[in-house]
């Protein structure tokens, strides 16, 4: 990638969200200018780290819409990665239900033709719900690379998660590919 590519890194409230600082550093080493956006629950989970995360990215951590007329605190996204993507955020995004600021941004980003990648983080009980496969199929049909199943996140049994094994490298690899495909 030539120059700085702006990555919006969005996370919802699943245990891998606690890796945010490490993922941001890894993304920065790959040449990304990272802007961190969180769902309300993820922001609550990371409340003690928000100031450090803002310093690390050089941008405010965002969780809600700015007021109309206020300047945007972030540069325009070249690519968006939404991971971990919870059951709620996955289904809301696929159904166009902008229940949180982060889901609203990715829903609108589709129409703006901003490349996006997503990696769900759902346990096997949630994954058994028929809406999960429908939502993954909808996002894939929209051209979003969804890292789920073979070659992505594979659900675990409830309470048997291994957040330290969440395959973050796959997300950043996919973000690099998406950014490269859309570069002028």
From TrEMBL:
Ranges of residues in domain Flavoprotein: 9-139
Pfam families assigned to the protein according to its UniProt record, in alphabetical order: Flavoprotein
Top-rank lineage group of the source organism: Bacteria
Name of this chain's protein: Flavoprotein domain-containing protein
Gene Ontology terms for molecular function: catalytic activity
């Amino acid at each position: 990638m030539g120059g700085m590519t702006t990555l919006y890194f969005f996370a919802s409230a699943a245990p891998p969200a606690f890796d945010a600082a490490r993922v941001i550093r890894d993304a920065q080493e790959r040449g990304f200018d990272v802007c961190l956006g969180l769902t309300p629950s993820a922001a609550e989970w990371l409340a003690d780290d928000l100031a450090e995360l803002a310093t690390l990215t050089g941008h405010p951590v965002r969780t809600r819409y700015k007021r109309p007329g206020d300047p945007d605190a972030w540069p325009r996204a070249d690519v968006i990665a939404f991971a971990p993507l919870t059951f709620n955020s996955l289904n809301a995004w696929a159904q166009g239900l902008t229940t949180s600021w982060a889901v609203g941004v990715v829903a609108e980003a589709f129409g703006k033709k901003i490349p996006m990648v997503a990696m769900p983080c759902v346990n096997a009980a949630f994954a058994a719900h028929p809406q999960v496969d429908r939502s993954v199929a909808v996002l894939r049909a929209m051209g979003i690379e969804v890292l789920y199943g073979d070659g992505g996140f594979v659900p675990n049994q409830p309470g048997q998660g291994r957040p330290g094994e969440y395959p973050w490298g796959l997300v950043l690899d996919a973000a690099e590919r998406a950014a490269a495909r859309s570069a002028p």
